[in-house]
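=== RUN LOG ===
request id: a7f3
mode: sequence -> structure
chains: 1
length: 122
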Amino acid sequence: MKIPSEMEECRAFWNWAQLIPGLKDYLYKIVNEGKRNPAHGMKLRTIGLRAGLPDYHYPVPNEKFNGFWLEMKTRKKTKHDSLPNHQREWIEKLQKINHYATFAYGWEDAADKTMSYLNNKV
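=== RESULT ===
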């Protein structure tokens, strides 16, 4: 069985999110990935590109947190796999300011974590 790419996982998560009232209005994707030459990367950093920022942001608070951030990983990754330090650092920084920030391993895990946030179960 073919393991979906991160792009395929993101597409499936986005399609699922469009079915959820409220979520579809405020959830957005942060596009930090992509190959670029060093000069273009530097230009993007001068206007705010931030390495490691999670893939998705839902800026609506729930009963406990100020907002929701999600870093998507393919389902082939596990919590024991090495994750980039710059992504871990962003998750930790966001948690320090009372945001729910987490990693998801596949779109179903992302959907479960999102619903837990929406239902105040985190």
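=== NOTES ===
Helices lie at 6-17, 23-26, 38-46, 85-96, 107-118.
The chain has a mean pLDDT of 90.
=== END ===
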